[in-house]
Write a structure and sequence with these properties.
3 helices, elongated
C-alpha cells in the first residue's frame, strides 16, 4: 500500500517537473538569442569606435598640415560632426565595452567613450540596440569618407 502511494505521488509530481523544465528552455534560448544580438551590437560599436579613432587621427594630421583658411573651416565643420557623433554614442546595457587599444597610436585622441547616451538604450530591444549601433557606425563611416 505504501509503495502504491509513493508511485502515485511520483506520477502526479512528474508532469509538473517536466512541464517546468520544458517551459524554462524557451526562456533560456530567448535569453541566449538576446545576448547574441547584443554581442553583435557590441562588435558593431567597437568597429565604429575604431573608425572614429582613425577619423581623429586623420583630422589631427590634416590640421597639422596647416591647410588654407577655407580648408581649416571645412575641417572644423567635420570636427563638429565627429564631436556630435561621439556624443550620440549609445551604451549597450549589460555588455562590457572591452575593445583593445593596442595596435594604434594613443596620442591625440580620447579613450573615454562613455558619452551622453548611457541610459538611452535601457528601453530598447536587442534588435533595436543593434540597429542603433549600425546607424551610429554608418554615421562615422560617412564622416570618414569626407576625409579621404
Amino acid at each position: 500500500m505504501i509503495n502504491n502511494i509513493k508511485w502515485a505521488i511520483i506520477i502526479l509530481v512528474l508532469p509538473f517537473i517536466s512541464c517546468k523544465n520544458s517551459s524554462s528552455n524557451p526562456d533560456a534560448a530567448a535569453s541566449e538569442d538576446k545576448t547574441a544580438v547584443l554581442k553583435e551590437a557590441l562588435t558593431i560599436q567597437d568597429d565604429a569606435i575604431h573608425i572614429g579613432i582613425e577619423v581623429d587621427s586623420l583630422l589631427a594630421a590634416k590640421f597639422a598640415q596647416g591647410a588654407v583658411a577655407q580648408n581649416i573651416d571645412s575641417l572644423r565643420a567635420v570636427l563638429k560632426e565627429v564631436d556630435a557623433w561621439k556624443f550620440n554614442m549609445v551604451k549597450i546595457p549589460g555588455m562590457a565595452h572591452d575593445h583593445d587599444h593596442s595596435g594604434h597610436d594613443h596620442s591625440g585622441h580620447d579613450h573615454a567613450h562613455d558619452h551622453g547616451g548611457t541610459d538611452a538604450a535601457a528601453h530598447l530591444t536587442p534588435a533595436e540596440i543593434k540597429k542603433v549601433q549600425e546607424e551610429w557606425k554608418s554615421a562615422i563611416e560617412a564622416i570618414h569618407e569626407k576625409l579621404k
